[in-house]
Each structure stands twice: as C-alpha cells, then as structure tokens.
C-alpha cells in the first residue's frame, strides 16, 4: 500500500502475474487462480502426479503464490494496460520515476505484454498504449509546458546498444552505437552514447518505437538469439514546467522486456533442486542477487554494479521509482519448474520497498531573477518605512553629528536618557561600533563604563522595540544576498559541468555530434539558453527523417530469377504473409472508412458554413428593414436565427466527434502500416536465413557442384543496396564475366565483391540473397521443387 507523504511515495514493488493462453487442452489441472480477496490474488500451481517424483526433492504437490492481481489466459491487452501501466504512467506525468518490467521464460509473453503482438492493432502492448495515453494527457493539460524524449536501449552480453540511432542501417547488433555506463561522483549513472530522441506527439514516438523494434529484429541472428538473451529498455523521459515558475519536474518511465529467465537444469545427483540451476543469462543472476540483498534487512551493500542491467535499473530496484513487475507464465506441464521459479522470484521482488520522490529542481536563472525582484521590493518597502532613500555610506557630517550625540548620551547621568538616532540601521550600527571602540580603548573610567553599559542595554531595548520590523527586513535582505551568492555559484558549477561533458563528448566521439544522455541531462538540468539550442540541433541532426529509411525500400529487383521464384513460393507459404494479407485487407477497410469519414467531415463543414451564411443573410434583411423604418426589428430576438444557431451548435458537435474519430483512425492506420512493414522485413529476413541454409545443405548434398577447397565462397552473399549502387558497373561486369567463367571453371563460382565482403553479412531489409550464379540458383530451385514440402514445413515451424 502506498504511503504518500508530501512529495514522496513509499511503496513495495507491485507484482502482477499474467498467464499466456495455452490453446487447446492443457487448461485443467495445472493451476488455479483465487481472486476472492480484494487486494491480492493467489495462484496455485499443482504439480501433476507423474512429475512430482523426479521434480522436486520435497515432493510438494502444490505451490501457492500471492500477486497484486493475476491476469488469466483470457485477459486482453487493454485490461492489462488499464490496471498495470496506467497508474505508473500517471505517476510519471506527475513527476515521479516509474518502471514496468516483464520477467519470465522465453515464450511466456514478455514481448507480447510490453510491446505487443505483431499482428493485430488490438494486440498492441504496454509501450504503444502508454505513449498514446501520455500524449493524450499532455494535450489536455495546458497548465504546464511539457517536453518528451524517448530512448531505446538493448543490453546484450553486458554491452549496451542504442536501438534508435537513425544514422545506422544496422545489420548486426555490433553496427549499432555502443552505450557505456559512467558513474559520476554523486554515484548517479549516466549512459554515454544513448540517444534521447525528442517525440512531440504520439506518431513520432511510435515511429521511434518501430525503428527500434526493427533494428532489434534485424540485428538478431540465429546465433545470438538476441530477443531471448538480451534486455530491452524503452524509456519515456518527461519534463514539465509551469509557465513563469522556476521549478522543473523530470521523470523517467522505463518499460523493460527482460531476457528469458530460463535456467540450465542441473543434471547433478537425482533430485537436485531445480531452482538452484543457473540462469542462462548471467545478468539475471545478478538481478536476483540485487533483489535478495534488497529483501534482506540491514543490508547496506547492494551489488548493483555487477551488471549493466542492474546499474541501469538501479533506481527502479529499491530506489527512487514506482516499480511494477509482471511475471509472465506459460503454464503448461513442461514449464512447471520454470513457472515456479518465476513465481518465487516474484515473491521476493514483492518485498522490495521503493521511495519515489518528486523529481523537482529549480532553474537557478529564474530563481535569481525572482530574488532580485524580491530584494527590490524590500528596498522599496524599507524606503517607505524610513521615509527616505538610503545611500550606501553615511556622510561625514552625519558621522560627526552621531559622535556628538553619543558623547552627550554617555555623559548624561539621567537614567531616562536615550540615544535617539532615528530609524536608520546604519546609524544604529555605527553607534554600537563607536561605543565598542570607546570601551576597548578604556577612554572612560570603570564607573562610567558600568553606567554606560546599563544605559546601552536600555538603549538597545528601546531601539529594538521601535525598529523590530526594520531589523527583520534587513535580515531578510542579508539572507537573500546569501542565497543569490549560492545560486550564482551553482550556476557556475552547472556551466562547468556542461562544458566538461561537452569536452568529454568531443574527446570520446572524436567530435561527432552524438547526443549523449549525460550531456543532455546536464543541459536539461541547467536549462541555460545555449543548452536548448544544443538539444534542438542534435535533434535536427539525428532525426530529421520522418519516415524511416527501411520503410521505403523495395524488395526484389536484383534477385536472380531462381531466387526470386523461391521467394515468391516462400512468401506464399510463410505464415506471416497471411497476416500481412489480413492487415492489408483491414488497412483497405480503414482507408475506406477514413475516406468516407473525411467526406462526411467535409459535408458537415459545408453545412455549417451554409448555416452561417443563412444567419448573415437574415442580418442583412433585418438591417434593411431597420433602414426602412421598422427599427424595433433590430432589437427583437429572431426565433429563426436562434434556431439556426442551435443547429450550428448541433452540427459542430457531430463535426467534432467525426473529426476525433478520423484522428483515431489515422493513428490506427499508421500503426497497421508499420506492422505490415515490420512483417515484410521479417519475411525477407526469414527467407534469407532459410535460403542460405538451403544453399549450404545443397552444397553438402551435391559437393560435386563446387570445388571443395573453395566451399566457403559459394555461400549466398548478401550485398547492401547502397554498396551495389556505388559499385554497380564493376559488379555487373564481374558478374557477367564470372558467369562465363563458371561454365568452364567451377572453382571460381564465387560471387563476392572483395571490398564488400567484410560487410556483407545478412542485412535483411536492404539486401537480397544472391549467389550471383544462375546455375546455382537454378539448382537450388530445382532442389526446392524436388523437396516440395520443405517450404510448407518451414512455414509451419515459423508460426
Ligand atoms: P517472450 O517475449 O516472453 O519470449 P513472446 O511475447 O514473444 O514471449 O510470446 C511468445 C508467443 O506467444 C508470441 O507468438 C506471442 O504472440 C504469443 N503470446 C504471448 N502472450 C500472449 C497473449 N497474452 N495472448 C496471445 N498471444 C500471446
Ligand atoms: Mg521476447
């Protein structure tokens, strides 16, 4: 439960479970969900009899776990978003940090939950829904000025990669900019080289998400299995400020798709605890260690530094953050041990307490301006009280006059006598100093001193009583002066920090204008005018392309005929192409809807204009009548005009609803288009993988085709379109000459342009598979035809 104390929220990490639909049978027997209690639900996992023996050493039959809420198989994405992500998004909007992370074995639905399914619009996950929600809220709130950025980080093998770098056409993970961690003296983590892309609306943010997802997909090779072994962190950065106010609020919302939590089963002595088995992913092991440490009382050292992921998520784990975990479960018989592990992990996470504080800071420039204003006001007030404007120093005459007064006062033996210098702090101060000097110099006798002391006390009292207010004002002035000094120092330091960061940036990236998070953080914090310019520049530089480059690329074209034909067959049988067709259908439908809506909107606008015209007409008529003498006509309420106005209001209302629906439709259409593009890229990539596999197989099965000493050379080569463009002519000639050769000399069927060789690893979106040798392509094709059903099978296994 949350304890809200002013600007702090103390709360344990909220832990939810989501059970993936299993389809077909499987349902009964393995688990049950108990939703009776209001605030918590419990999940019972029942170990089937036949598994219980060899499974765990204590042979329990069932395990019970508590969750904030359990989303069973039927739960839809909108429901999951409403109860899990919406509250966190609201906190982020209010200035608190938030994190939602999905944890579970591969295939349990982490990506589905965080990003969404690749097929249907309704399957979109937490990230697109959160973006949509946040931008809608921002639009509604005109009381503040908001700035939003997104970043997308992938961590694979302890290396961070920036998925949003628009300058790269990544074909491998290693092509993406490497992100490294830097810790500043205040132990705050900065991510160097992770770009923060500004997104001013939902559409821009979605484009960035898809850019990142596509990079993630393309960079994945069967070898690295990135989606299983890497962590992806999509972060929405929000800052807000009320106009005229000096306080800025910053918040970060991390949406995290963790690596698969599956462990290597320990094949030790029979009955060994499976939960002790090691994680495949070492950083999840460190995550678990951090969580164990956090759950222990009185533990001062938390081993965040052991892995990049725990460093990045440091605040989200026991720090300044509203954190939520979703345990994704694929609860069938085979996965029972993994599911239990996931639930156990979740129970530990549920013990962690976080303290989310409002991330507010003060813009020193604005603060100084405000304080200066306040000082001026105080000075004016002072002048008003004393009745005259003060100069800094007392004049010589004034000083002489004061000395006289003091002397007279000291000599006066009347106990009632007072030293009245008027309501002027400078004079009062001078008097005290002067008296002090007189005392120190022992110019007056002991006796005199005593009497003087007494009268001084009285004097003090008198002055204090009369000038209390004045003194307070003076003190306030002093205080403000100090504050200004401090702030000026802060500003200087801030400036220096920014300069240092800039210097480092130049030093590290060789002067290239990479938008570094550390830099932008500093800059954002200081909000100096130059920083705004820098941010903007960087943005323009790094993300001016609205449509992502891969979306406009053409497929085919340069494929050899055999290869092309194979691609057609592959496409036909590929499971995803069915989805593409479905989506195409849907898209057509949505387009038609949008078109007719657009027409209706236009119609309504015309109608409104027409009605307005009628009103004007009536005004003219009335004016004419008035001129003709019936002047009372002008003042009379015109029932017809009233009716027309009401009608306009009506039409305006429906215009507005139609317009909003059209806007919604636009977002959906965009999303569908992006989904389709993604499916296309994936199809091509799958084809390439399959094609090269087939080529390898073919080569192994028909070794006579090639010279064995040169086998490596006949692997299909993937050439980037850009490279092909630049080296086009020479490639063409090479290809031709080489075809001629190949009939006679089989040892040289290689087709690989030397300069491009090092960079011609699979780069799916832009590349086309090409053995470059029609003979080989034809052979492969013949081979495909002979084995007719391969594709069919392949298509199924891809589902
Ligand atoms: P993970 O990211 O944990 O490895 P995925 O999210 O990729 O798992 O899910 C594996 C498969 O199961 C995907 O095809 C996905 O679409 C499907 N899936 C997962 N969760 C659901 C769900 N709640 N409803 C429908 N399909 C789901
Ligand atoms: Mg996944």
Automatic annotation (TrEMBL):
Protein origin, superkingdom: Eukaryota
Start and end residues of each stretch annotated as Disordered: 729-770
Cell location: Cytoplasm, Cytoskeleton
Coiled-coil annotated residue ranges, if any: 368-412
A GO cellular component annotation in the UniProt record: microtubule
One Pfam family recorded for the sequence: Kinesin
Annotated Basic and acidic residues bias: 732-743
Annotated ranges, domain Kinesin motor: 12-352
Name assigned to this protein: Kinesin-like protein
Organism in which the protein naturally occurs: Casuarius casuarius (Southern cassowary)
Gene name linked to the record: Kif6
